[in-house]
C-alpha cells in the first residue's frame, strides 16, 4: 500500500471519527449541558483521554514500530512475536499498577485536576466515582496502541484507524439509551457515560486483536526478558510519551484553573473539541506525510535541499493552519450555535464556549508548528531539548493563566494556552536556527506573508458573509437552515482561500498536475 493511500486511509478514518465525535458532543451537550454532572464527567475522562491522545498521536509507536520491524528482519517473524509479546507484558504490568494506584488515589487526583470542586461535596464525590470507573480504559488504550503498532509494521492501517470511530459509536449508543429513558439529567447519567468509556475500550481491543490475528502477527505473551531490544524500546518510547504529554499538560492545567468557575470546565471542553478537529487532521498530515520527509532530508549532503525540506513542511503547515485558525475565530459563534445550542445547552453556554474557541484558535498555528519543528530534533536523537522547551511552555501557561485569572476570569485559561503554543514553537525555531540546523530560504520568506494575506482576506469575506446571513444563523432557526448556512460560509472560505493562494503564487497549479502524474515515492517510514 502506498504512503499516499495510507495517509488517505488514516485521514479519512480520522475525519469520520471527528465527525462522530461532534455528534457525540452535541448529544452530551443536549443531555447534560454544562451542569455539575457534565463537569464531573469531563474531569473524570480527562486523564484517560490524555493517554488516548498520547498513544493516538504516535508517540508510543515511534519507539515500538522501528524496533519491531528490525526484530522481524533480524530474528524472523517468531522473534518479532516474542518481542511484541514481551513489550505487551511490560506494558500491561505498568498500566495495571498505575490504574490501581490511581483508583486508590482518585480523591487526591480530583483535588489536583479540579480543586474548585472541593467546595461542592456532591460534585467532588461524583467526580471521584466517575474517575474510578473510567480508569480501566487506560489498560485498553495501551493494548490498542501496541496492537496498532504490530499492524503498522505489517503495513496494515485500517483497523487501527477505525478504532476511534468505535469509541464514538459506543458513546452515541449510550446517549441514545439515556435519551430514550426520558428522565432528568442526574449522577446516574454520568455513570452510564463512564461505563461507556470502558466498554468502548474493550470493543477497540477486540477489533485490533481480530486484525492482528488475521495478519498472523499475534504477540507471544509471556514473562518478558529484559534484553537490549526491550530496553531500547523503553528508551525510545518514554521520551516520546513525555514530550507529547507536556503539550497535553496544558489541557490538564486549564481544567485545574477553570474548575474554580461553575460551567467553565464544560465550556473549555466543548471549545477544545472544536479546536482539536483542525489540529488533529493537520497533525496527521504532518506526521504521516511531511515529517518523514523532514527526517530523511536532514541528513541530505546538499544543505540547501535539507533546509528546503523543513521550509516546505512549514509552508504546508501554515497553508492549512492559518485559514483554519481564522475560520475558527470568525465563525466561533455560528459553529457553537449550530453544533451545541439545544436542550440543556443554553444561549449563555454558547456565548462562553464561543469565547473559549476564539481564544484557542489564536494558538492553533503555534501548536501545528511545534509538530513541524520537533522532528528536526528527534531526527538528531535529541529528545531532551524539545521536552525542556515544552516544560517552559507549560510553566508560561500556568503563570499567565494564574496571573490574569483574577482580572478576566476563566477566559485567561484558553488565552494562556494559545500563548504557550506560540512560545513553544518560537523557542524550537530559534534553537534550530541558532544551532545551524535550519536556514530560512528565500521561497519561505516570500510565501509566508502571502499565506497570511490569503488567510486574512478569507476571514474578511467569511465575516461579511456571516453578517449578511446572521438571521439565518439565529438560534431560533431550524437546524437544517443553520447548518446549510454555515456550510455555505465554510465553502465560501475554502474557495476564496484556495483561489488566493494560487493567484498570489503560493501554489502553482502545474505542481499539482505534475504530482498527480508522478508515482508515490516510498519512504523508510512507509511501514510505520
Automatic annotation (TrEMBL):
Gene Ontology BP annotations: cell wall organization; lipid translocation; peptidoglycan biosynthetic process; regulation of cell shape
Pathway membership: Cell wall biogenesis; peptidoglycan biosynthesis
Any one Gene Ontology cellular component term annotated for this protein: plasma membrane
Pfam families cross-referenced by the UniProt entry: MurJ
Membrane-spanning residues: 27-45, 86-110, 130-150, 157-180, 192-215, 236-257, 277-299, 320-341, 353-373, 385-405, 411-433, 453-474, 486-507
Keywords: Cell inner membrane, Cell membrane, Cell shape, Cell wall biogenesis/degradation, Membrane, Peptidoglycan synthesis, Transmembrane, Transmembrane helix, Transport
Localization annotation: Cell inner membrane; Cell membrane
GO MF terms held by the record: lipid-linked peptidoglycan transporter activity
Membrane topology: Multi-pass membrane protein
Primary subcellular site in the record, as a coarse category: membrane
Organism per entry: Siculibacillus lacustris
Family as reported in the entry's similarity comment: Belongs to the MurJ/MviN family.
Protein name per Swiss-Prot or TrEMBL: Probable lipid II flippase MurJ
The organism's place on the tree of life at top rank: Bacteria
Protein's job: Involved in peptidoglycan biosynthesis. Transports lipid-linked peptidoglycan precursors from the inner to the outer leaflet of the cytoplasmic membrane.
Database matches in InterPro entries: Lipid_II_flippase_MurJ/MviN (IPR051050), MurJ (IPR004268)
